[in-house]
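Continued from yesterday's entry.
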Amino acid sequence: MITRRARLSAAVTLSFLLALVPLVGALRVRAAAPERLTDQEFWKLSADSSEPDGNFRSENLLSNEFGMQWVIPDLVATAKQGRAYLGVGPEQNFTYIAALKPSIVFIIDIRRGNLDLQLMYKALFELSADRAEFYSRLFSKKRPDGLPASSSAADIVNAFTPVATSDALYKENLQAIEDLLTKKHGFQLSELDVRGLEWVYQQFYYFGPSIDYNSAGSGFGGGFGSSPTYGDLTAATDSRGVERGYLSSEERFGVLKDLETRNLIVPVVGDFGGPKAIRAVGTYLKGKDVMVSAFYLSNVEQYLQQDAKWSSFCRSVATLPLDETSTFIRSTRGGFGPGPGLNSQLGAMAAEVKSCR
C-alpha cells in the first residue's frame, strides 16, 4: 500500500525533475553551438549548402545603404545575441554582426563573386591585429601614425585619406591573402575563385576608400542618385550620431576577427528563391539546436517578387529555427533612415512566414 508520505515524496521528486528540464535544455542548446569549425568543416559546409553560381544585375562590392545603422538600437532590443545570423551581400553584414554577436553566420548570395569577396574579408580580418591594419590592408595604403585604439571610425578614414596607394603593398597583401586561404587553411580554391579573389581585391586597390556601389562596372547607383563611398559608410552613424559600424571600435572589430578566425562566418552561394541554400542552412542549424537571431535581406525581396519566387523564399525561411524574436532586416523605400532612397526596416520573421509553412 502506497502511503500518503510516499505519494508526497514522489510528487516532490517529480516536480524537481520537471523544473530541471528547461535548465538541461538550455545547457544542451549552448553546448551544441559550434565553438569553431575546422577548415575541412568550414569548406564542406559552404560547398554542401551552396547552389550553382547565379546572376544579378550588378557586382555589389559594397552597399549603398547609408542609414543602415539607424535600426540597430531597435534590433538589439528585439533580436537575441549568441544565435545564428543570416545575411546577403558584402560589408553591411559586418555591422549587424558586430551588434548581435552571433555564434555562427551564413552569408548567402546568388553570386559566387560574393563568396570570393567574403573570403577576401576573412583573410584580411585574420591577418590584421586591429582596425587600422585592416583598413591599411584593405586599400593597400601604408598605415599612418597617430591612430590609437580609441580612434573613431571617422578618425581612421580621415587619417588614411591623404595616404597614397602602394603597388608594393597591394602585391604583398594579395599574396598574403592567397597564402592564408590556400596554405594555412588548405581551402581548395578553383582557378575561377582565385581569379575572382584577385579581381575583387584589385577593385579595392584601384578605387581605394572612394569605391562605391557604382564602381567595378555596376553602373546602377541603386537607382537613387549618387552612392556613398566606403569611407562614407565607414564613418556613418545612427540617428543620434553614434558610430555603430564594424570599424567604429576595436571591440566591434574584434567580434568579426574572432568569428572569422574560428571559421564561423560561412559564405554560401544560393538563390533566396532557390530550392537548397536557405533550407540547407536551416537543416544544419536545427541539427545544432541554434535559433536564428536575424536575417538581413537588403532589398532582395523586390527581385523575388518580380521573378515570382517570393513564395518559394517564404517557404524556405519557414523551415529555419525561429521564435518570436527572430528578426528580418530589410531595405525598403521609406523605412527608418536619413534619406529618400533605401532605408532599413525590421520585421518579425516567424509571424511573416507563418502562412508559408
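--- second protein ---
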Amino acid sequence: MNERIASGATTTSKGERTRLAIVQCAKQLFYEHGYERTSFSDIVEASGLYRGNISHYFKTKDDILRAVIDQHLADFRALLAQWEADHADPKARLQAFVGMITGRKTDLVQYGCPIGTLNTELAKDRPELHAASRALFDLFRDWLAVRFKELNRGDEAKSLALHVLGRAQGIAVLAHVYHDANLLRRETDQLKAWIAQL
C-alpha cells in the first residue's frame, strides 16, 4: 500500500486503516484530477489495493465520494476547533482562516481550492451529490459567522461570513488560473488588513 497514504492513519484496526487509506487516496485523486475524471480503477491503482478490497468497503465511486466529504468535514472541524483553542480573539481566528489559504498556496496555485473545485464540478454534473459537498462550505460559513457575532456584528454576520468565504474562493480561483503565488499572497494580505480594521 502507498506509504504516503497509509501514514495518515490514526485508527487502530486494520480494517479502519484500510478504509481510511482508500478515502485519503481518493481525496487526493479527486482534488488533483476531478471527481468525474477519476475512475474506480484509478483509485485501485493509486492505493495499491486489490479492487475486491476496495469493493468490500465501497460499492461505488459515489460511496467513496461521500466518505471523502465526511473526511473533509472531520478534518475541517478539527482544524476549526484547533483555531478556537489557539486564539481567544475573534480577529485572530479569522486571520487563521486566511492563513489557511497562504499555507496551502502551492496546492491552490496548481489545483485550486479542494472544496471549491469539488463543489463547482458536482453542481454542474452531479446535483444529487452536490448537497453533500455543499456542507463543506456551510461549515466554514457558519464558523465565520460566529466569529463576526463575537465581534458584535450580529446583524451582518452571515453576509460578512459569505464575503470572506467568497473572497477566499476568488483568491484561490485567480491564483490557480494565473498560476501566481504572488497574486495569492497580495490578495490574502489585503484580506488580513481588512480583518485587522474590523
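The chain is about 80% helix and 0% strand. Residues 1-9 have pLDDT under 50 and may be disordered. Will compare against the first tomorrow.
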